[in-house]
Amino acid sequence: MASLAIRCNRGFTLLELLVVMVIIGLLAGYVGPKYFQQIGKSEVKTAKAQIAALEQALDQFRLDVGHYPSTEQGLTALMNNPDNQPNWAGPYLKKEVPNDPWGKPYQYRMPGQHGEYDLYSLGKDGQVGGSDEAQDISNW
């Protein structure tokens, strides 16, 4: 009976613990990159959805005021009446103008080079161009 109690109280050997740690490390090495890749994709999707919402707000602004906000007025014209426009019926967004998923402000230019206005995010790297998560996301 005493030998049974000794066997039950024995812990794991160092070798057993190392094997478990290696298995956990291999799983983390396989699952981790896949997980972070999905986070990057979701940030791009979020930026596209935010740009679409901002486009709708800008279109509503144009319907009310007769023109899009100038580059100087920027996207804040969706929340605050710029130059006391008489037909401004905003705010056109429920909350403040969001930053892109990487914490940087969206870029707005009117008149645009690709349409009546350009609305875009410079992506994760904050630089023009790029690919994958660092790609620019725009309304054109």
From TrEMBL:
Chain ranges of the Type II secretion system protein GspG C-terminal domain: 35-140
TM segment ranges: 12-32
Keyword Nucleotide-binding: no
Sorted UniProt keywords: Cell inner membrane, Cell membrane, Membrane, Methylation, Transmembrane, Transmembrane helix
Compartment annotation: Cell inner membrane
Pfam families referenced in this protein's UniProt entry, alphabetically: N_methyl, T2SSG
Region (Disordered): 121-140
Membrane topology: Single-pass membrane protein
Annotated family: Belongs to the GSP G family.
Name this protein carries in UniProt: Type II secretion system core protein G
Classification lineage: Bacteria, Pseudomonadati, Pseudomonadota, Betaproteobacteria, Nitrosomonadales
Gene name, Swiss-Prot/TrEMBL: gspG
